[in-house]
Amino acid sequence: MTQEAEKMDQQDIDATPSESKPFWQRIKIFNIPMIWFAGITVLSLFAMYTNNLPAGMIGALLIMMVLGELLGWIGDHTPIIKSFLGGGAILAIFGAAFMVYSGLMPENTVTQITDFMKSGGFLNFYIAALITGSILGMNSKILKQAGSKFALPLLAGVLLSIFLTGMIGLLIGYGFKEAILVIAMPIMGGGMGAGAVPMSQIYSGILGNDPSYYISILVPALALGNVFAIILAGILNMVGAKFPKLTGNGQLMTGFHVEQKAITYNISEMGIGVVAALLFYVIGQILGSFIPLHPYALMIIMVAIFKLGGWLPDIVENGANQWYQFVAKNWTLALLIGIGVAYTDLGSVLNALTLEYILLVISVILGAAIGAGLLGKLVGFYPIEAAITAGLCMANMGGTGDVAVLSASKRMELMPFAQISSRLGGALILLIAGLIVPLL
Question: Closest Cα partner for 221 from 367, 396, 406?
């Protein structure tokens, strides 16, 4: 018998016990056998519907993790959703949003999750871990070269999206300036708090009317743009799988093929990583009190300075990277449930679903992705990674949208560049809005 035949026979023997098990023992959700996960889900939902969830983060995080893993698994195993709509990421967000919209989620649970996400700071806690760990775990040479070139594809995405949307608005009778002001600008504006809200103040100060009037106009564009950004992120991931030359599979720069170091998890080092993430977040807040930039942007700058300067000991960099890996692996889907509950108004999205409106929103998303991807290619980036970070992460709902887009594209390691787009790029859009609104 040949060695190949012996190997195949051994593989058959090894596979037999697993294949002979019932499907509920073979299928795992969150690395737990399905029958056990079903029991966890039933108990969690029973607690939710009988108003027995503990107050604070315990009850909120339990429901977010259980629903996130359940909807994420379903989305990743449902053909159309998996192939064209971003998989588990989009189902987690909009499944949770639908539960709120339809009343399937009790009001007290909605309030509990919303408080945990916003006043409880879970979103900030998550993003702080991703920014700190992903930058400190990055190759310094790539960080230096990519950071210096990143503004060009970002600006190209902004300009092409604004021009394309205005022209399509003109062609379909919506209006050139209306398409830019009401649809393109809010979508590219860096989210709700950093984009739509200050933009409404700018519009109000220049054009009159109460800011709430403009908020009601801007929010549907922002929400729908976020949907299509997530969808296109999933499609770009598929394109990268079919055309490998277009993607670095999570690496932004061409010409660099950095071997990912095997991570050996150390509980003590991971604790240091938690402290590092929280400390850099606080530094961003302190600097933001007197520097007119978003604290996330300042946090990115400070982490990058420390990384490039080589000022941190290896134990801190390793710990931050380990903590980032833990958070991304275990809490991403939970966070997406929180985004669906606390930040996604499904009613606004549904009310905006007219054909011309959808066409204009799509033109913003495509313009951002194409402009960033093409110029990104010219400056040495992989087109798909450039389109996702400098394009789609400019066109989503800020920090929440960054998580959803990167999750749908399976490129969470690009979070630092996504945040540059959302925060620094969002500030750029507000500056552009202040300049062009009087002209238009």
Answer: 396
Same domain, residue pair 57 and 129: no
Angle 324-328-331 (CA atoms, 0-180°, nearest 5)?
A: 120
Given 86, 117, 148, the domain boundary residue is: 117
CB-neighbour burial class of residue 345 (10 A; exposed 0-12, middle 13-18, buried 19+): middle
Q: pTM above the 0.90 mark? A: no
| CA dist., res. 378 & res. 338, Å (int) | 38
Q: Is the dihedral of CA 267, 272, 275, 277 positive or negative?
A: negative
Residues 316 and 385 in one domain: yes
Helix axes 295-309, 267-288, angle to 10 degrees: 130
Residues 90, 109 within the same domain: yes
CA pair distance 261, 80, nearest whole angstrom: 35
Whether 4 is in a domain gets the answer: no
Q: Please, are residues 179 and 440 in contact by the beta-carbon 8 Å criterion?
A: no
Check if the beta carbon of residue 108 is closer than 8 Å to that of residue 255: no
Q: pLDDT tens digit string along 206-219?
A: 677 766 666 666 76
Phi, psi of 255 (to 5 degrees): 85, -5
Residues 130 and 35 in one domain: no
Q: Which residue has the tokens 């007290």?
A: 108
Query: Which residues span the domain enclosing 412?
Result: 122-436
Q: Which of 71, 91, 117 is the endpoint of a domain?
A: 117
Closest CA to 225 of 40, 391, 69: 391
- pLDDT tens sequence across 26-51: 789 999 999 999 999 999 999 999 99
Specify whether the CB–CB gap between 402 and 198 falls below 8 A: no
* Residue 6 included in any domain: no
263 and 334, same domain (yes or no): yes
Which residue type occupies 85?
L
The pair phi, psi for residue 138, each rounded to 5°, is: -85, 155
How far apart, in Å, are the Cα atoms of 42 and each of 66, 99, 238? 10, 17, 34
pLDDT, tens digit (0-9, with 9 covering 90-100), for 220-269? 787 788 889 999 999 999 999 999 999 999 888 876 654 556 678 899 99
CA dihedral 22, 23, 27, 33 (to 10 degrees): -40
Angle between the N-to-C axes of helices 140-149 and 295-309, in degrees from 0 to 180, rounded to the nearest 10: 130
